[in-house]
Write a structure and sequence with these properties.
The complex is a heterotrimer of chains A (489), B (494) and C (102).
Chain A (H helix, E strand, L loop, with lengths): L8 E12 L38 H13 L3 E2 L2 E2 L2 E4 L9 E4 L6 E13 L2 E16 L3 E4 L3 E5 L6 E7 L6 H17 L12 E11 L9 E6 L2 H20 L8 E5 L4 E4 L12 E2 L6 E2 L2 H10 L4 H12 L3 H7 L3 H12 L5 H18 L11 H13 L4 H14 L3 H8 L7 H14 L1 H8 L5 H12 L6 H13 L4
Parallel strand pairs in A: 12-13
Antiparallel strand pairs in A: 1-10, 1-11, 2-6, 3-16, 4-5, 4-15, 6-7, 7-10, 8-9, 11-12, 13-14
Helix pairs in contact in A: 1-4, 2-3, 5-6, 6-8, 7-9, 9-10, 12-14, 12-15, 14-15
Chain B lengths: L3 H4 L3 H9 L5 H13 L6 E4 L1 H13 L11 E5 L26 H8 L3 E6 L33 H8 L5 E6 L5 H7 L2 E4 L19 E6 L2 H11 L17 H10 L1 H9 L2 E5 L9 H16 L3 E5 L7 H16 L21 H12 L2 H14 L5 H22 L4 E5 L15 H5 L6 H6 L3 E8 L5 E8 L4 H19 L2
Parallel strand pairs in B: 2-3, 2-4, 7-8, 7-9
Antiparallel strand pairs in B: 1-3, 4-6, 5-6, 5-10, 9-11, 10-11
Helix pairs in contact in B: 3-4, 8-9, 8-18, 9-10, 9-18, 11-18, 12-14, 12-15
Chain C lengths: L6 H10 L8 H16 L33 H8 L5 E2 L2 E5 L7
Antiparallel strand pairs in C: 1-2
Classes of the chains: A alpha+beta (489), B alpha/beta (494), C mainly alpha (102).
């Protein structure tokens, strides 16, 4: 498939993801790695860069980096080196960040993504990952009127930076990759992937060029994008902005731009063009990082089931279609939600999958929520399916129950009971209702008996109304037919 | 002037008196504190009288145990952080810094019962060879107040040489313990890189810095080293190697003549020809040759050796050390500690605060080295300067390794001259740097070395000879120093 | 080397290092830097073909830390923050940051 074009231009996008590692302590200091505590509580002399303090590497952070590298098909480097990246900023206490520069821990990986550039047209593509390296996060600054406040709780948090080749040709591809990458990091329990808390951050390098041009255009770096929807919108805006600049005779400036989600624009971040000379050099306070074959093998053997394998298993065990299985296993929380719901459903994996994909995901998307924020627990969905299977409620009624589950968070059985939504499947009760309807509509009965077969639907509809929509549809049809045929009175 | 070794009591001599209850730690600390208070050499930036009194009491009560350092007065160079006690590194940029933690070596010494007399003056951020770069005034050589004690651990060396403390801790990056030891006529040691924890030692050049003892003799040096050495989980560059019983080993050489004789007969001593080239003062050369002769007479094997790349060591050092320093000093910006300079009062911008704080509160030598280091690492120059220096460093280290395949220790002068007059080298940075010509290769290679006094040179000033050991061979090194001390006492160095 | 280091270069380096240089200092440091770099230039005569650069004279052993948190007490963390000349609500207070950062 040819790349999407934008008024005679195409776009080239590269992505850099910073993922916080879910360790208990920071990368080089034993301070707790924990979000949400009071300012400057998770600190010690090391992460506040007191004179004389020294870094000591967290073994678990390395292990997580190895996991991430294995799960993205990277080549693990036996020997990698930490380097100092020197610059001045109040949230960078040492005046340098300990990162990896010329010798990162992972090189040359890839992920195969699935996406739709045109609605309904599913494509796959391999995205190459240039490198993954380890580094420490900076603290947080808060900008107030005339001054800034700095909290170093986050300073020193372990990060992996995952850099892709500029292989993306549309925002949709970028989002598909980011979702997949986040899913994998969550699956391997390397990162929580909580974008609101800032532990999965994406920067996009975006450039445009005329279709047919092989040289890369000047790129702008977009930062401060903390949801997938904003990634898509920010890139879309930027593509258009750059095209407008070129079309009006200007030149795209290589710069950093911040995405403003309220106004849906990107804005230049630097007031003046700052040449960054980071003066990288190998960190003399740390030995080189040596990762043995044995260590890599052990981590590989302990890797949890990755999405692809899980999807195959869902197809085999639950008979799900491959597409459905892929969607449901795309993130760990979603797959876990499915498995929990399925366990309560009375062995209706396909029905659970349908409900999950058509109803639950739809409502989540409309509310811009993730599965972790679903207002009801997975078990409730399973119970709902079980009720449908048992015949306690009809599929149509189930939709009503579902909506109530969403808004109230109550479990389905309670909702059904309190709202009196139990399906009527008692033949005697239905027959009584049918008799009532027939007695109330003698003209239509005579017309039906006179040959107007279409009135069958009328009687079904009226009886359904009589039972406040609770009649078991299949049984109702059967009984109405029996009455109309004269088999019952 | 007589050498302090013969006048002042060593730590092990004080310990004997303490054990025999002939004197109390309280009396000892009072005596040293009183001398420190009256000191005219500016060896101390601050006295820690309260801590000293408490420590002396703990020593007297037996709480500190019966180790070699219990109750012994010690000076601590002011680039070792001390919890609750101001630590300035000889700089204005830390003039009000009271650290929230203590260096590992300080904690170990506290446990061992040492009595802290005070924080010793030093060249600012350990950058200097004369202690003329302190923001708090220069230190004077105790033997001649018009001269320099050496640097950067000038205060620590002057404290020991002036009998203001029995021992002191210094730090050595390019010779900053050994060179002042040489000028002041005391023993000064730089251990193998990684032997002693740097946690809490304010960094100058991370791959070169080591904490080192300054003492009156080899026995005290061994005892002090034994108490500070060893793996520290807070310093990734320390090694998990057992700490030998340095004190006992040196004691044996010192007190057992036949053991000493056997040791000397088995000793192979290398003499690097590069350390005896031009620039070496003749009176210094004379003393070193006397030491070599004394060793030879005792049966040690003297082997001519070569360190061919050592002549590049100073150039390598002034790329690597300044590069690492430029990064290590980026944290001094007024944000989290130290004073702030706000040139426009409340309207000062962040950038102005950074530039004025650092511009006004760092001294000249520090700024010079930061600029040099920033340049050497900057885009376009990294390969030609920093990378190349690291390659030559490899060759310098290799030279030492090759020597130690055939000899146990190397011998040479510590410095090319005796102490010089204050102000005589300050106009030309390079001439000051040349003072470290024999000490710097040692830091680059990471090997251990000791400077010990060996007689007098020009104008009756102390001469230091440097003994260099193979990696982790501090014991052999200190045994050699102890043996040489005995030979000197026997009149072999006069 | 006189071509490499000139007042403009010195100013650029001083800015990278956030060192304010006043009148006369630019020229003085330029001259000193040039002299030292001249001295350092002797390194170019050493044959370093196939020589790996080293960061330490002695090879270091790998060193790791277990992922066990060591939390400081509130008193201890307050003491750290209190080292700063200006703090507010337990945070470091600085003049407003304009742009910059990563």
């Amino acid at each position: 498939m040819p790349h999407p074009t934008y008024h005679g231009y195409e776009t080239v996008i590269g992505l850099e993801v910073h993922a916080q590692l879910a360790t208990d302590t920071k990368l080089f200091s034993a301070s707790p790695n924990h979000y949400g505590d009071g300012p400057n509580r998770n600190i010690n002399p090391v992460c506040t860069a007191q004179p004389g303090a020294l870094p000591v590497l967290n073994r678990k952070a390395v292990e997580f980096a190895i996991r991430a590298g294995l799960a993205t098909n990277c080549k693990l480097q036996k020997v990698s080196v930490f380097s100092r990246k020197n610059y001045f900023y109040p949230d960078l206490p040492k005046g340098y960040q300990i990162s990896q520069f010329d010798k990162p821990i992972c090189l040359a990986g890839w992920l195969d993504i699935e996406f739709e550039n045109e609605p309904g047209v599913r494509e796959t593509k391999r995205i190459n990952i240039t490198r993954i390296h380890m580094e420490e996060d900076a603290g947080k600054s808060q900008h107030l009127a005339g001054f800034s406040l700095v909290d170093l709780n986050r300073a020193g948090t372990p990060l992996i930076e995952i850099v892709s080749e500029p292989d993306f040709r549309s925002p949709a591809e970028a989002v598909a990759y980011l979702k997949m990458l986040r899913g994998i990091l969550q699956y391997t329990e390397v990162c929580d992937g909580n974008m609101q808390e800032g532990n999965f951050r994406c920067d996009a390098n975006v450039s445009v060029r005329r279709v047919g041009e092989t040289k890369l255009g000047t790129r702008a770096e977009l930062k401060n994008i903390n949801s997938f929807r904003f990634v898509e919108k920010a890139i879309e805006y930027e593509i258009q902005r750059q095209i407008n600049v070129i079309n009006s005779g200007g030149k795209v400036v290589q710069e950093t731009r911040l995405y403003d989600s309220a106004r849906n624009v990107t804005q230049s971040m630097r007031s003046k063009e700052e040449a960054h000379d980071y003066r990288y050099f190998p960190e003399p306070d740390l030995p080189p990082l040596v990762v043995s074959d044995e260590w890599i093998a052990r981590v590989k053997s302990e890797l949890p089931e990755l999405p692809d394998a899980k999807a195959q298993r869902f197809v085999a065990d639950f008979g799900l279609p491959e597409y459905d299985a892929k969607v449901i296993t795309s993130t760990k929380p979603l797959a876990a939600f499915y498995e929990k719901a399925n366990a309560k459903s009375g062995n209706e994996p396909k029905l659970v999958s349908n409900w999950l994909m058509t109803e639950v995901l739809r409502m989540l998307k409309e509310a811009d929520k993730e599965i972790e924020q679903c207002p009801f627990p997975a078990e409730h969905l399973g119970e709902l399916v079980a009720l449908i299977k048992k015949g306690d409620i009809s599929s149509k009624m189930a939709k009503t129950v579902f909506e109530e589950m969403w808004t109230s968070g109550q479990d389905p059985a309670t909702i059904v009971r309190e709202k009196g939504l139990v399906q009527v499947s008692d033949p005697a009760e239905l027959e009584a209702a049918i008799r009532k309807v027939l007695q109330s509509n003698p003209k239509q009965l005579a017309d039906f008996r006179g040959g107007k077969d279409k009135l069958f639907g009328f009687f079904v509809g009226q009886t359904m109304k009589e039972t406040q929509g609770k009649a078991n549809p299949a049984l109702l049809n059967e009984l109405v037919m029996a009455f109309l045929k004269g088999e019952k009175e | 002037m007589e050498y302090p070794r013969h006048l002042f009591k060593k730590g092990w001599e004080w310990r004997a008196l303490l054990r025999a209850k002939k004197i109390s730690a309280k009396e000892i600390s009072a005596e040293f504190l009183s001398r420190a208070r009256a000191d005219k050499t500016n060896a101390f930036l601050a006295l820690t009288e309260e801590q000293a009194t408490k420590a002396a009491a703990r020593a007297d009560s037996g709480e500190s145990g019966d180790g070699a350092l219990a109750g012994i007065p010690l000076g601590i160079k002011d680039n070792l952080v001390t919890l609750g006690v101001k630590t300035t590194c000889g700089s204005k940029i830390l003039s009000n810094y009271v650290p929230p933690y203590s260096a590992t070596v300080v904690e170990r010494l506290k446990k061992a019962g040492m009595v802290p007399i005070g924080k010793c003056n030093m060249d600012e951020f350990a950058m200097g060879s004369s202690n003329e770069n302190s923001a708090y005034g220069p230190v004077f050589l105790p033997q001649d107040h018009a001269r320099v004690p050496g640097g950067s651990s000038g205060g620590s060396a002057a404290a020991v040489a002036g009998n203001l403390s029995v021992m002191a801790l210094g730090s050595d990056t390019g010779g900053s313990v050994r060179q002042p030891a040489s000028f002041c006529g005391v023993v000064g040691m730089k251990p193998t890189y990684g032997r002693v924890s740097r946690y809490g030692l304010v960094a100058f050049a991370s791959s070169l810095d080591q904490v080192g003892p300054l003492t009156l003799d080899a026995q005290d040096c061994a005892d002090l080293l034994e108490n500070i050495a060893g793996f520290d989980p807070w310093d990734s560059t320390t090694q998990e190697r057992e700490v030998p019983r340095y004190g006992r080993a040196v004691g044996q050489v010192r007190t057992d003549a036949s053991h000493r004789a056997a040791f000397l007969k088995n000793l192979r001593v290398g003499v690097p020809k590069e350390f005896f080239a031009e620039g070496l003062d003749s009176t210094v050369r004379t003393q070193v040759e006397k030491a070599i002769d004394a060793l030879k007479l005792s049966g040690a094997k003297i082997v001519p050796v070569s360190l061919p790349h050592s002549k590049y060591a100073l150039a390598v050092y002034y790329v690597i050390a300044v590069s690492e320093a430029s990064a290590n000093l980026q944290r001094y910006d007024g944000v989290r500690f130290g004073p702030r300079v706000l040139p426009n009062g409340q309207n000062t911008t962040l950038e102005e605060m950074y530039e004025s704080t650092r511009g006004e509160l760092f001294g000249k030598e520090v700024k010079r080295r930061i600029l040099l280091g920033t340049f050497a690492l900057s885009s376009g120059y990294y390969d030609a300067y920093y990378k190349r220096a690291c390659q030559v460093r490899s060759l310098i280290a290799r030279d030492f390794n090759e020597c130690f395949a055939n000899v146990d220790v190397l011998i040479g002068p510590t410095t090319p001259t005796v102490s010089f007059e204050r102000g005589s080298k300050t106009s030309d940075p390079l001439s000051m740097y040349l003072s470290d010509i024999y000490t710097v290769p040692v830091n680059l290679a990471g090997v251990p070395a000791v400077s010990m006094p060996f007689g007098k040179g020009e104008k009756g000033l102390p001469v230091g000879i440097q003994l260099i050991g193979a990696p982790w061979q501090e014991q052999k090194l200190l045994e050699t120093v102890a043996a040489l001390e005995c030979l000197f006492d026997e009149g072999k160095g006069a | 080397m006189k071509d490499v280091v000139n007042p403009e270069v010195t100013r650029k380096i001083a800015h990278l290092a956030r060192l304010k240089l006043v009148d006369g200092e630019v020229e003085k440091y330029t001259a000193e830097l040039a002299k030292i770099l001249d001295f350092v230039a002797q390194l170019s005569e050493v044959n370093v073909d196939n020589i790996e650069p080293v960061i330490h004279g002695i090879p270091l052993e790998p060193r790791f830390r277990d992922d066990e948190p060591v939390a400081l007490s509130e008193e201890e963390t307050k003491r750290i923050v209190a080292c700063s000349e200006q703090s507010l609500y337990e945070q470091y207070k600085v003049p407003q940051v304009i742009g910059g950062g990563e």
